[in-house]
Amino acid sequence: MATNNLKRWLTIIMATLGAALLFISLVFLSKTTQNSAEFGRLQTSILLLNAAGVAVLLTLILINLVTLVRQYRQHMPGARLTARMVTMFVVLAVAPLGLVYYFSLQFITRDIDSWFDVQIESALDDAMLLSRTALENRTREHLDRLQNSMGRLQGLSGPNLVAELERVRETMGAEEMTIVGSNNRIIATSSALEAAGVPMRPSDEIRLQTRQGLPYVSFDPISSGGFQIRIALKLAAEGAVDGVGLFENFGAEGGADEERILLAQIPVASNESDLAEGVQFAYMRYRELAFLRQPLKVSFTLTLTLALLLALLTAVSGAFYWSRRLVAPIQDLVAGTRAVAKGHFDTQLPVPQRDEIGFLVNSFNEMTRRLAEARESAEQSRQQVESERANLAVILARLSTGVVALESDLRLRAVNQAAGAILGHEFEAHIGDKLGDFAGASAMTQQFVELCRGHLDKGETEWREQVVLRGDVGRQVLMCACTALPGEADKASGYVIVFDDITALIQAQRDAAWGEVARRLAHEIKNPLTPIQLSAERMRHRFMKKMDSEDARVLERSTHTIIHQVEAMKDMVNAFSEYARAPNVDLTIFDLNHLVHEVAELYRVQSRSVTIALELDTEITVLEADRGRVRQILHNLIRNSIDALEGQEQGRIELATRLVREQDLKFVDIVVRDNGPGIQMDIVEQVFDPYVTSKPKGTGLGLAIVKKLVEEHGGRIYANNRDTGGARISIRLPMDEDSRTAMLSRAAQPRENRREHA
Amino acid sequence: MSGLLTSMARRVAICNRLIVSVLVLLALTSIAWSAEQGRFAIRTVFTDVRDGVIYLNADVDYELSEVAVEALASGVDLTIELQIEVVRDRRIWIDRDIASLLQRYQLSYQPLSQRYITSNLNSGDQLSFAGLPAALEHLGRVRDLPVLDDTLLKPGKRYEIRVRAVLDTRDFAGPLRLITFLWRDWRLASEWYEWPLII
After folding, report:
1. How far apart are CA B176 and CA A340, in angstroms?
2. Which residues contact A547 (CB under 8 A, 6 or more apart)?
């Protein structure tokens, strides 16, 4: 962040410095074009500096342009906006600059051209001509006078010549007069100047002209200002007129026909000179300007073009810079939005500045922060719900109570394992099916469904009922409760039906009650029986002999009945006490088939009217159980059947054993079938309860005891009628310790759970 | 395929023609320029030692470019600079400057008298000429220009005198200066003329 700031400031400072430098150089350039001497020397460097500035800006723009084009082609976010803004800025800068440039050029050209006028030019030419003519006239005048005075110098030599020259000079008003011989030898000189320098000598030009006999006239400026007229004349070599002496004195070296040149230097009157100079200055100035017209135009155009180029390029660079700066936060926003769309809610953007875009970026940051928070809390609550649901699923699965959840249109929404186990049906495949559409459902399931539908179709949503379901393996007592799930607008969103299998509970209660009855009966009745029997016997013994035969016979019959009935009563009480006896199982390993054979053999001998058929599974070798109790079970069952077959011809009892394997567990099934009248349908449910019997005689405890004994081994007993007539009683006993444990736990589990629920 | 080839061939032909025409144009301009360009050249240089003073004599050919002549006629004063340097010729190190002398002349035109004036800016001597060639010839004849005292030179060492004539445009008015910087026909200078200085 700090480096970015530094970088930005550095850029701004550099740009400002560069712009200032370029501006100053432009001012200098314009000054130099306006003929200002002090910047003249700097001009080249200024020009180069400007050109360098232009080059730098051009490079910058080119780099920017290339980058922009590449970004545009790659469809980078913000590239289009940048391009549009740059185009806009450039158009906005170029149009007015172009206009100003065009008109400035026009003005410069016209302005410079307007300095020059044909009339002024011809007037100046005329003035020049006039001045020249005037000066020429003056010069000619001087020439004429000099030519007239020349005669006075002819033939003179030596001091005479010098004196005469002095006089001629004075009359002519000349500054200096000199007579030069050949080889630039000065023959005579006269000067008006006090500190006269070296007398002038004739130049090659003068010599050339005078040699031809023509006068040389020139009009020269003098370095101190003003003009002077220079005249050179050839003097005729007629010195011989005055005498040879002179020539002998002065011209000994030169000879008689020595060429003499008279040089005169005559100043022009200062007023004339000033005027001429003024005219010349104006003329020269005008000519110079006319000459400079083209360079001036070129340099003005150049300066203007440079200034314009600099301004334009600065504007374009600025356009790039500002477009980028403006677009940068928008680019960030676009990238941020994309990131958020991809699910990166923790995206935070740098805040550019405190303007509307900065506000927007701030809002974006706030939004992403809140989104991230919301997502986090949603995630947390989702996890919470998930764990709750998992807990609930575990609880439901472990629950021994059957739970069935229905939609409001009675479609099955959920069902737990216990429900399936109680009703003996797999509900998993029926999730989503309508209640009652369960194909292949068991009889109990169908009864259950009918019960539920009966209530729900009537519009009863809250009910509780104990129902008895009749299945293939016996009856089952269920405690059902239904409640509606809360939904919208007082309409149930579904129903939950909860039911418990309370068959075992009821049975246990009944068993406990009968146990108590039996114990009391045994206790209360058994005690007086013996004194009754003894008393009856004593009575017979004491009074039999004393009585006559008639009375004795009556007594004999009565006491016999008492004793006999008491005996029967004792048996009954013994049976009850057996039923109520506390379980004390003595497990041993023995051969079941052998035992069955043994018991059956016993009855074959006793009851000749009944056929006992054995059907023994040879796979069963040994059984771990209480041998005495198993024997009693067999006795009771066979006796029960024999009793049922009493008075029936061709009575037949079938005794079968069978080995049953369930996974690793082994069980033994003992089935006793007869062809008697079978169990009456009204008592088939309570056939194992004490005192339930269809026989004319019997205690009604036989099957109850059997059931008790079987349950003491952890086994199960079922009773039903055969299709061909007669009853069938099936017993399943565990074959070893593992199987017994498994069966006991299976039987105990629902009971315990039930207790917990209660 | 053939259409493509033909169009390519046509393009190549057009390119060739373009290159040739550009070359011809360049050649023509260079000829035209050289005709108007003017030329400064040093013809001879010789030195002469009298009374312990080294005098330089040189003959320089001054040929002004058309633009320069026009500028002169328009009242622009031209400054011609004769740069004279005496250096010690060193075998290993770069040559050492012993003395340098700048002889500046001004050439101007007087429209009133229609004469060309030459003035030696070092001495102030001023002469007028009826024609430009005479004035230039006068400027080109350098006679007995004292350069340096021979006591400054160590005998036995190798010295060299080198001379160059340059049209000095530095004092020109603003716009003209810009032009002289840009236009080639204003850049008038002779090559360095080198002459071993023998004492």
Report:
1. 67
2. A555
Quote ipTM for the complex: 0.70
Mean pLDDT throughout A665-671? 89
Mean pLDDT (whole number) for A671-690: 80
Instruction: Order the strands of the B159-168 sheet from edge to edge.
Output: B126-129, B115-120, B96-110, B78-88, B159-168, B193-197
**Contact residues on chain B for A39, CB-CB shorter than 8 A:** 174
Q: Are A630 and A591 in contact (CB under 8 A)?
A: no
How, if at all, do strands A651-662 and A610-615 pair?
parallel
Contact in structure between B87 and B159 (CB atoms under 8 Å): yes
B138 touching chain A per CB within 8 A: no
Return the structure tokens found at A683. Answer: 């008592």
Please report where in the chains the tokens 């909860």 appear, as a residue.
A498
CB-nearest partner of B112 from A33, A47, A219:
A219
Single pTM value for the model: 0.52
* A28 reaches B (C-beta below 8 A): no
Q: What's CA A582's distance to the chain center, in Å?
A: 74
Find the range with the poorest average confidence among A104-113, A231-240, A296-305, A392-401. A231-240
In the predicted structure, residue A346 carries a pLDDT above the cut 90: no
Structure tokens at A597: 């054979």
- pLDDT at residue A412, as a whole number: 86
Question: Chain A: nearest CA to B75, how far in angstroms?
Answer: 5
Q: Is B29 on the interface with A (CB under 8 A)?
A: no
Comparing CA positions, the residue from A578, A526, A583, A579 lying closest to residue A689 is: A579
The separation between the first and the last C-alpha atoms of chain A, rounded to the nearest angstrom, is: 71
A33 and B175: CB-CB below 8 Å? yes
